[in-house]
Structure formats: structure tokens, C-alpha cells
Design brief:
1 helix; five-stranded antiparallel beta sheet
């Protein structure tokens, strides 16, 4: 089995093309009851039309300090090659405004599939998985800045600047940043992952990289911090990296490793570069710890790591339906993995693809790309209970009008409301943005 082929960054794209222009689109607000046992209320706060507002949001949302949301769609827009959008409260509902929907023009890149990151100056940073200048067609890292003067009652388009063109695959640079979420350090440097590139291994495409972009005299300089080889350290990192308080980086490789089910890795800065340590090798068949960790990781307050796998679990290997796991540092310097939940019956087409989110009480929230009561995905909560964890389905997707195949992270606001996206389904079969309120 080739996990790289199975989890190709292109596997979920639904081609679409749209024309025309509109600066703002009022959402369709649809309330749907959740399971009777739950007090939560599920609502669709935007139905993507496949036009100027976009189509197929693969990533989750990013929230600013004012409570507004930013996100991406992998298709749609004026050129049909993706949209970056903003959602704001208006008249008791939500207003979606396309900030940039002409990807593919002027070598800006094509098909943004990752969430955006808000920089210190309030501008947005993100990636595309293809396009760019020249002939590399291996994706870009871009910056979106708002117009200098806000116009009353008009959402003006933002300005896109490409900070780096990746690739080509098989070269020394990274290629195809896939679902990588970008992260900044205190000096303003940007870090992320590419699922391909870094050499000619892994079938000639390269096995993936961890990279850093440093601002230098009005420009940006890329440094490859680590190149995966496809051996025991894994390959195809897709979920980005996170920092600990000491400046170490942590992430997942979705494939490879000794058992070809992926790894969890740590990168430690040294005077001569970065040193990789494999914290966990997923074992796959018959073991139950999971396989194919596509998503990135989160920390809790005690320094434990949490993540998900798309396959594996108690059913083993490719036939499993994914896990939510915890990695706990040990006194001897190693890490011990605990499976908090293994998805089994009803999730056989694959489990979580996005990061989990933790609230102040230690409960975890996430979504599955399949399964649930209707086989089209679910939003779930995991609650610590009697030495284990209890699973609660907060919503099971039915396709129309509430969406299907949620792939991104679940966002939690200060009032306990949950927000996210579904890649497909909805009234126009182009995906939705949803809300769950307590």
C-alpha cells in the first residue's frame, strides 16, 4: 500500500469553475436539530454557492480578536481556483465577504487548501497547493493585506503578495504545502511543512520538508530545516508544526516509518541546524494505535500532545477508522502513546483529518470525514470519564442542507460555541460553514 497515493493532496478536490464578481454574500441560515439527547443546536451559517464565495472548504476557520472568522475554499471564485473569505456578524446573522477570489491570475498560486494564519499586523498568511511563478506548479506561500482605506458599506478586495514559490517536486525545495497550517515565532519567522519535495526520493517527488521563511530587507528567505527521507522517520508531513516553550517543533508525517503508517516527530534547534527525533512510530495492523496521521498536533497545559489518525485503531491498519491519541512525555526522555478513542463501526471510510481542539475543562472536540448516523461525517466531543474517555456525537451530517465530509479543525469561541466547515453537501453541493451552540 502507498499511503502517499492514498492521501494525495489532490484526492478531495472537486473541480468547479465559476464566473462573475460580488463583494459580499449574505449567508443562508438554516437551523437543524441535533440528536435528542444533546442540548446543542446546529445551524448552517453559510451555504457556499460555488460562485464568487467559493466551493469546497477543506480547511477549518481562523478567528481574530473581534470574533470574526477567516477561511479558504479550494475551488470556486472568479477564476474557479479558490477563495479566501471573511465572516462577520451582521443583523443577527453572518455576512461572508470574499477577500481574494482570483487565484491563478498573476502567478498567485491555485487551490488554497489550508487554514490561514493571522500575522501580528492583522494580515493573513496561507498556502496554495499548486501554481506559482515559472513552471514549478508546486504551490505558494502568500500574504493578504487589507486595503489602505476602508470604504463605507463595501468590502474591498485585499492585496495578495506571494512570499515564496515552492518546488519543483523532486528538487531540493519543498513542494505542495497541502494542509499545512503556518506558525510564527516571536521574531516573525514563518514555519510550515510541505508534503513533497526535498529531494528525489519517494517516487521522484521528494518525501517532504519542514521549512522556515525569514523576513530579510523587504523580502523573504527560505531555509529547509529538515528533509524527510521516506525511511524510519516517515514522509509526507501535511499538518504543519507547533512550538513548545523551549523552541522545539513538533509535527506528524502522514506516511512511512517502520510500519508505513506514519510518525510523530520533534525537531530540536542546535548550533549547526535542527535534529529530528521520532517520538512515535504508528504500528498499524492489529495493534490499534492508528495509521496515517494527517492532522497536526496540539499541546495541553502539562506538555502532553494530542492528535488524530485517519486510519487504524482497534480494527487495525487500513481497515481501521482512525483514532484520537495522546502522547505523554516520560521521565526517561521518551514518549508514551495512549489511544483516547478508536473509531470503529460506521466510520470505515476514514476518520478525523483535522486537529482536535481542547476546552478549559480538558474536553476534546473534532470532526470525522465519514461515519456518523448517515455515513457523511460527524462533529464529536470526547470527555474524560472514569479513567477513560466518553464519546458524544454533537452532530451527524446528512448532506443537504447541512453539508458532508467535514475535514478541518473545529473552532471553539469564548462562549463555548463551536464552528467549522464541511467540504461538500449543502444546498448547492459546495460545502457549508456551521455553528453548534450550547
Amino acid at each position: 500500500m502507498s499511503n502517499l497515493d492514498q492521501l494525495s493532496p489532490f484526492m478531495f478536490r472537486r473541480g468547479s469553475r465559476a464566473a462573475g464578481f460580488a463583494v459580499a454574500l449574505l449567508c443562508v441560515f438554516t437551523a437543524m436539530p441535533t440528536q435528542p439527547a444533546q442540548a446543542q443546536t446546529f445551524s448552517v451559517i453559510h451555504q457556499f454557492t460555488g460562485g464568487n464565495d467559493g466551493r469546497n472548504p477543506l480547511a477549518g476557520l481562523t478567528m481574530d480578536r473581534a470574533g470574526d472568522f477567516y477561511g479558504t475554499t479550494s475551488d470556486g471564485g472568479v477564476t474557479g481556483e479558490g477563495v479566501v473569505f471573511k465572516m462577520t456578524h451582521k443583523n443577527g446573522g453572518w455576512l461572508l465577504s470574499p477577500l481574494y477570489n482570483t487565484f491563478g491570475d498573476s502567478d498567485s498560486g491555485e487551490f488554497p487548501e489550508s487554514a490561514v494564519t493571522i500575522g501580528a499586523n492583522g494580515s493573513l498568511y496561507g498556502t496554495t497547493i499548486s501554481g506559482g511563478t515559472g513552471s514549478t506548479d508546486a504551490g505558494t506561500l502568500f500574504n493578504l493585506t487589507p486595503p489602505a482605506r476602508a470604504q463605507r458599506n463595501v468590502i474591498a478586495p485585499w492585496t495578495l503578495t506571494v512570499l515564496h514559490d515552492f518546488g519543483p517536486p523532486g528538487g531540493s525545495d519543498g513542494a505542495l504545502p497541502a494542509y499545512s497550517v503556518l506558525v510564527f515565532d516571536s521574531a516573525g519567522n514563518i514555519y510550515g511543512t510541505t508534503s513533497w519535495g526535498g529531494g528525489n526520493g519517494c517516487g521522484g517527488n521528494g518525501c517532504g520538508t519542514v521549512f522556515k521563511l525569514t523576513p530579510t530587507e523587504g523580502d523573504w528567505t527560505e531555509t529547509i530545516l529538515y528533509t524527510f527521507t521516506g525511511g524510519s522517520n516517515g514522509f509526507s508531513p501535511e499538518g504543519g508544526v507547533i512550538f513548545d516553550s523551549a523552541g522545539n517543533l513538533y509535527g506528524t508525517a502522514s506516511s512511512g516509518g517502520m510500519y508505513n503508517c506514519g510518525t510523530v516527530f520533534k525537531l530540536t534547534p542546535t548550533g549547526s541546524g535542527w535534529v529530528e527525533t521520532t517520538l512515535h512510530l504508528f504500528l498499524g495492523d492489529g495493534v490499534g494505535d492508528g495509521c496515517i496521521p494527517v492532522s497536526g498536533l496540539i499541546f495541553d497545559g502539562s506538555g502532553n500532545l494530542y492528535g488524530t489518525t485517519y486510519r487504524g485503531g482497534v480494527l487495525g491498519g487500513d481497515n481501521g477508522a482512525g483514532t484520537v491519541f495522546e502522547l505523554v512525555p516520560q521521565p526517561d526522555g521518551g514518549w508514551s502513546l495512549k489511544v483516547l478513542w478508536a473509531f470503529t463501526s460506521g466510520f470505515a471510510n476514514g476518520g478525523p483529518l483535522g486537529r482536535v481542539t481542547m476546552d478549559t475543562a480538558g474536553n476534546l472536540y473534532g470532526s470525522t470525514s465519514s461515519g456518523g448516523a448517515y455515513g457523511l461525517g460527524a462533529v464529536f466531543e470526547l470527555t474524560p470519564s472514569s479513567g477513560g474517555w466518553a464519546y458524544t456525537s454533537l452532530h451527524d451530517f446528512i448532506g443537504n442542507p447541512d453539508g458532508e465530509i467535514p475535514m478541518g479543525n473545529v473552532l471553539l469561541d469564548a462562549n463555548g460555541n463551536l464552528y467549522g466547515t464541511a467540504e461538500g453537501g449543502g444546498q448547492y453541493d459546495s460545502g457549508v460553514v456551521w455553528e453548534i451552540t450550547p
